[in-house]
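Researcher: Going back to the complex we discussed earlier. I've cleaned up the inputs and rechecked each line, so this should be the final set. Can you rerun the prediction on the complete assembly and write out the structure?
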Amino acid sequence: GAGVSQSPSNKVTEKGKDVELRCDPISGHTALYWYRQRLGQGLEFLIYFQGNSAPDKSGLPSDRFSAERTGESVSTLTIQRTQQEDSAVYLCASSPPGGLGNEQFFGPGTRLTVL
Amino acid sequence: KNQVEQSPQSLIILEGKNCTLQCNYTVSPFSNLRWYKQDTGRGPVSLTIMTFSENTKSNGRYTATLDADTKQSSLHITASQLSDSASYICVVSPGGYNKLIFGAGTRLAVHP
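Model: Rerun complete. Updated structure for the full complex:
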């Protein structure tokens, strides 16, 4: 009965480097979301995957951000040429098919610090 | 613009006391409203969910209320414990597949 897991838990990188963040959703969950949470602010939607449908990328802040998901399993969020403004906690969540009100189960997040 | 505003931004109370957190939203259409608890360094965990027809929902010492007419919700915590120290996030769903609107949260600190 593992929950959503994310890795790494912390990532420190230099400005201009690329980073890759990983999310393992709960088994059987068809929907997967990525959010960004800046210090003291609410969660910002980044991208949504649902099964084999085309992802909703409307929340990605720039073309430096991209995400992939293989089937209904692992997802990776890639940030290219990182900037200091990218420093935040990146949260992943998954949802089961059907169910009430799109309940989302969150992972612990990856704290990204860009120096 | 869809927005969720929470107050206060932060709150300090003594262990054993009660407190009430507020949430106002301008999300339309409205599907449901959730309260999440987020411990430091952890992901948010759902406490309650209410649809527009529900006025109150309890989960142990947590009681959420919803007034869909005034677009206000509150989360009341009774007999607070040290473990209640966390951020409490109000989240509104406008329906559709799932693009949730998150408030910035209220940071609660319970002191002994």
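Model: Worth noting: The beta strands of chain A are 5-7, 10-13, 19-24, 31-37, 43-50, 65-69, 75-79, 88-95, 105-106, 110-114.
Researcher: Good, that matches what I expected from the previous run.
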